[in-house]
Design a protein that fits this description.
Elements lengths: L5 H29 L1 E3 L12 E3 L10 E4 L5 E2 L3 H8 L6 E4 L8 H6 E2 L2 E2 L3 H7 L1 H15 L2
Parallel strand pairs: 1-2
Antiparallel strand pairs: 3-4, 3-5, 6-7
Helix pairs in contact: 1-2, 1-5
């Protein structure tokens, strides 16, 4: 029967926590980075499923990123600062709209005969893939 010392268990627990944090950070980063901002209808593009149309002014830059409900960072790349601070077990929130772009839900779900782009739903549907890929990377980086 194999016997473990407390030091071995402590090292194993620390490794697991490092891997969990790495997987969380990489998965969230990949998901948010994968949400494409593309030219919208008035800029010669079209509303494509899974994208944020750029012609809607502040929508793309209305991303609000918070960690533990702290003051929200706002902007297209605001998630980078929050992801950088994430640790396994943390609560982060990423949302578009609010007072910066009150029409975000209409663009996402569609309104007045204009189809929605469902960028959040598309990203969420790929979540398991992001986690799977991040797990493979974390196992290779944190042996």
């Amino acid at each position: 029967m194999t016997k473990y010392t407390f030091a071995q268990l402590d090292r194993w627990a620390a490794k697991v926590e490092r891997r969990q944090t790495a997987i969380l950070k990489q998965s969230v980063n990949d998901m948010l980075k994968d949400i494409r901002i593309v030219p919208g209808i008035t800029r010669g593009g079209s509303r494509r499923r899974g994208t944020i149309p750029r012609d809607l002014g502040a929508l793309a830059s209305s991303l609000q990123s918070t960690l533990f409900g702290s003051t929200a960072l706002t902007g297209e790349d605001s998630y980078v600062m929050v992801v950088g601070q994430l640790q396994a077990g943390d609560r982060a929130r990423f949302a578009w709209g609010g007072t910066l772009a009150p029409y975000a839900q209409e663009v996402h779900y569609g309104a007045n005969g204009v189809p929605g782009t469902f960028w959040r739903d598309e990203a969420a549907a790929k979540w398991q893939g992001y986690v799977r890929a991040a797990t493979i990377r974390a196992k290779a980086q944190i042996p």
